Amino acid sequence: MLDLFPQQQVGGTLRSDVVLKVRDTARRACADVAAPVAIVMAASVFAVAVRPSIVRAETLAGTPILNTANLRYDLEGASRSIASNTVTLIVAERLDTRLVREGQGAVVVAPSPAAPTIVPFVLTNADNGTESFVLETRLSSPAITLQALAIDADGDGRYDPAVDTALVDATVPALAPGRSITVFAILAGTAERPAADATLTVTARALTGSGAPGTAYAGLGDGGGDAVVGPTGASASVVVPLTSAIAGPVLVKSQSVRATDGSQTAVRDSVITYTLEARFTDAVSGARIADPIPAGTAFVPGSLTLDGAPLSDAADDDAGRFDAAGGTAQGPGIAVALGQVAAASVHVVQFKAKIQ
Amino acid sequence: MITRPMIAAVLVATTAVASAAAGPLQVTSSILVEARAAAADGTTRIALVKPSKVTPGDKVIFVVSYRNTGTQPLGNVVLDNPLPRQVAYRSANPGSPAPDVSVDGKTFGSLETLRVRSLDGSTRAASPNDVTSVRWRLASPLAAGSQGQFAFQAVLK
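Predict the joint structure of the above. Result:
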């Protein structure tokens, strides 16, 4: 028997995070099997690991710029012309890196290594040359571990272990100037040690070099020219706040009030509609939701529903009942037996109570 | 301000190339960048130096030096410098006479007098970005043994 009791009311943020967690669980189910294949494919997939990006007008690193001047003059009544030497300037490679996170807010990390949490980032080669990048990750809490870094090899924006290959030496293979690529940080929490206020810091640095803008790396630019660190310092960091997900099912309770005058004022005879939303990541049996009727209110007979379908108040064949005598330890309350629950499912129980 | 020793050095370095051309007029092209250094008197001295790490958006200085190595004056000296397509013209370098510019390689004049024709047939005033070529004319014959230089600033696209 798995009894669920509502926690305190929770705002919308956690709710949407829970939805994400459920989706990740579903996707991961078929992905584990394919992981060894992905490692074998790593070397060959890198070449296509780019997504469409903006067209750049910048002169590419290594481009030779040639200049020749021409002179005409008159000598002894005849017009003559000569050309100067041709001077060549090799355009240097300006090293610039951009890294941004996709999405915002805290990421809820699932407690199970088998159901990792995916945090996507977009890395952009802001160079005027081709460049590789080294990623460095730091987790502020030992309760969360980094399983892998992977690139979005097929460019669909979603992590798929069969296609999106893990990075070797945390190095993103060469990107053409101006190109962006999605990088996934794959995180897992531990169930025993929930972490609040944890952070994931990801730093991307140009492989050729990074540091103070203007720092030069002689001869290391594309085409044999120099490389020089640009305004970004050739390095970019993103900090992602993390929280550990609560292991197992989650029950979220919310309420709405409707007074007899149609307003939302909580006065005598106002009716409160309570909504209990139970979310399950895993399949369970014998799940049961119980909730006492709050003191100072009276249950509205016939108001109990499960997933929108009415349940009778009597203790009969259907899943729910209202127990006026004290079905819960706290006094009168409702109880709904969900029984066998599928993985990644959501069930909603509603009932009404009138303020006395 | 441009320091004289630097320009002398450029001339020496390129003499071998220039002397390969027959005739009494030597012409040497160079691409330089500004190097700023604080001088002892508190001013900032700008030297033109050989570029080593020019990236898009950087200012580069094109310097063309000429010298009459012959024994007779040379008349109607005209110096043409088509711009490499990777650079955008900005202005004459301080200390250099302003060149006539062209947006089509045929008509030369001051920038204010030039117009650019659009695809739909309308025209607009030319901007420095439209310049494709610069040209200088010497108003008087170049005496034997005399020399000079022209310079303009551009930005790497």
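Residues 12-31 of chain A form the longest helix (20 residues).
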